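Page 47, continued from p. 46.
Same chain as before, 465 aa.
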Amino acid sequence: MKQLVITGFLVAGAFLSTAEAQSKKIIADKIVGQVGDKIILRSEILNAIADMKRQTQGQDNVVLPTECQVMEGQLIRKALLLQAQKDSLTVNEDQIENDLDNRIRQFIQQYGSKDILEEVAGKTVYQLKDDFREAFREQSLADQMKRKIEESVKITPTEVKAYYSKTPTDSLPFYESEIEVSQIVIFPKANKDVEEYVAKQLYDYKKQAETLGPKKFEQLAKNYSEDPGVKENGGQYTLNRNEKNWDPAFLAASFRLKEGQISPVVKSKFGLHIIMMISRSGDEAIVRHILRIPPITDDELKEAKDKLDTIRRDIKSGKISFAEAVTKYSDDEGSKFSAGAFVNRDNSTFITLDMLDKDLISVMGKLKPGDLSEAIPYSDERTGKKGVRIVYYKTKKEPHRENLKDDYNRIAQRALEDKKNAVLEKWFKEHIPGYYILIDKEFAACPSLEDWRKAAENASKARIN
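Result:
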């Protein structure tokens, strides 16, 4: 049952079918499972697997869940949902709407536009949101119930050591060399005269597009925009007024526009833009933009370097810590909240060398753990902005077999997850007999559903008696 719990929540995020699946008719759909009054349809199993295939397309070494595992996850979800309702847990409707908006935006990004999405789905965006809303509520309640069951689970150092000692040495993972690296980045501001020159160019593009129409704007974006993320599709973005990850100036200027209107030059943290409103529906909008980044002169770069040289001296003399200097001076928003540290996908500050940009890799070859680099040129790979940075090479772990000294946090996290799974396993074994369970005979060969099948058989006997 332990594997049941783990697998169930791994596939929990794939329960919602894609917009494409929404447009297809499921032949001979039927109820294949039930927990209490919550039913599981055959189409839900198929759509979950199809959704996982879509999400992992192009990824290497992906192991998709089997129908047995998805069924198991659905049973878990329904049981948690029932208990959440019994315990009177509630959902945050605003959060549900935000989650729905994010999902719809993913679909629009996937299909290229709102119109294409609606054509493929055979439904409007609002109808799609209505289709998904109850499933989002169910998932939210199930997640809350899971957290409630696990909230008191803690792990002690003694338990971590015991967990580690039970793992055979040859089963312990081997880690390549890992390092901790942090940076402070300063992006100098462009000369005012240069900025005005670039703004005049943008106003010329605006005039051309207003004269020749939307196709001209799209072509100008492809030819001149310095936003690499959307240049090939003509500078198109799908926006939502409530999303926090957009630049505030860009977002505000976009939602002041009417359909077909082009903004004056807008200054954001990325550079200068002109924005064209393609379509808008409530808090949703599709826009095109042209980004130009005013070039930085050698004088501005020297001024930024001099500032970083002063910051470096203050750090080395102990007047300010590196972390404090990041908070006070760094313009790199990606590492602002990790004290300047590069982080991996698990938010660990220990990373492999290949996770660094190519310019930094060459710098690291000249540094030792504990060293602080000189101020060096920097170019942001995402935005193309030029700046200067200093790098702190904090620590290095040599290649090694996992051990308590070097990898305690990793081991502790696994031990905690193992303990949580044990608590969940115990909870399900205690609660499954109290539910009405139905499992279709086509899942009779799934060994992981044995506890659920026994509960279903007992429920059937109880009904007969």
